[in-house]
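@channel sequence for tomorrow's demo:
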Amino acid sequence: MRGLPILLLSLALSVFVECQDNIPDVSLTPNMLSVNEGEEANFTCSPLLEEAPALLNTRNPGASQSQSIQNDDSRIRVTDISNNDTGNVTRMRVFTWINPILENDHRREFFCQIGSFESNTAILFVNHAPDITIGGETEFTVIAGATLNVSITVDGWPEPTLTWTRDGARVDLTLSKSGLSLPSVSLDDAGIYTLNATNAMSSDTGSFTVIVRSLPVFEVGDDARVSIRVGAEVVVNCAANAFPPISPDNITLTLDGKELELDSNFVHTIASAQTSDAGDYVCTATNELATESVTITVEIGNVPDK
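structure tokens (generated this afternoon):
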């Protein structure tokens, strides 16, 4: 009786080893395949078991859930073949993915399932020409200083090389997954933007226009104070930039409520200043967006020469 447990253990191990030997080594080949869009992609699953059909499953990269591709799926053609090159007949099933277009996803993972047994994972890459999609409008209007976000997606495999131009001149811009972001837009950012995407298959271009609207901004900047001596020249600059542009009639200069004359460059010049010319000179500019003003305080006296 003492040897019975040993005998039972030996039998159990024998059955376990035999069961292990009967577990099929299911494989899906090739492990990795790259085809051009529209070409057929062939994966071979082997060996077949008499009692269990081979099914092809797919999952998105990184996803745990898989989706079975039925043998009658219009995208798949199934062929059973036998391979006896080595003298041993091995039944295999070939799955042909017809005209693989992966709906803007160039990569797909497959595995073969025979009964409860799963094969290795095989990866299909589909090479296709770049495709640029610009969401929403093709003309964007933004106020200077604001951030402009443009939804742009670029599809294609191999990954396309991207180049940007603005009004035909190369510019360095970075496209994120969500699109293009232009922070603190200025008048210099206005223009026609063109994105070119190129890979080994082909190329594609997409364009949009950026219009920057700006409140009047004076060249002198903020309010200023200047001190000069009697007899010196006084120059008051009221030039301002804006979009839409400011008409000449909408830039004025006043001193104590009296409007003064400006030249074609919106400059007022006093050749020889007197104490009566001292005061607060107010430049005012108006466009469609707003009216802005800046004050230049002029002090005139016996200021030493520098």
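heads up for whoever presents: The two ends are 121 Å apart (CA to CA).
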